[in-house]
Amino acid sequence: xxxxxxxxxxxxxxxxxxxxxxxxxxxxxxxxxxxxxxxxxxxxxxxxxxxxxxxxxxxxxxxxxxxxxxxxxxxxxxxxxxxxxxxxxxxxxxxxxxxxxxxxxxxxxxxxxxxxxxxxxxxxxxxxxxxxxxxxxxxxxxxxxxxxxxxxxxxxxxxxxxxxxxxxxxxxxxxxxxxxxxxxxxxxxxxxx
Length: 193
Prior knowledge:
This protein is an alpha/beta fold. It is built from four helices and 19 strands. It has helices at about 10-25, 45, 75-90, 165, and strands at about 1-5, 35-40, 55, 70, 95, 95-100, 105, 110, 115, 120, 125-130, 135, 140, 145, 150, 155-160, 170, 175, 190. The strands form four sheets. Strands 6-9-12-15-18-19 form a six-stranded parallel beta sheet, with no helix packed on it. It has a five-stranded parallel beta sheet with strand order 3-2-1-4-5, sandwiched between helices. A four-stranded parallel beta sheet has the order 7-10-13-16, with no helix packed on it.
């Protein structure tokens, strides 16, 4: 049985936790893991969520365990990238999760730490880089590449229109997409709503 630890105690981690526990309840043999708990440097984040597993403490100074796989539930892509780099240098391995209700096309591939939520539909010849998060009901067309550390919110559609020249969409690193298409200048990252 795999042992998992989530990093981050905010709403994204709560969503990932929900995806994991739902999959485990419906398909216990396929999703044979135990969630040990959450790390977050801000303990008050954890207090605002309702988890059935404990708060394990701060991630800063955490000694990586080789018998555990990590999932990172942090939306801030720059922070997430720094944290993953530090954990990787310490020998951490990252759990890849594909919800059983996701539909995957032919020649689909994804990197370490990817999280694909329920009711996502992914076309043929799609590549997701490391630590890409697709929440629920995301639609990705054929011939699409999404690079490392991207976050894609609920109900986003990325279409390819059937030709590589027009429809092959490559998102550069560190973009967060959500379904309204407006840029949020407050956060500093390239975040779209």
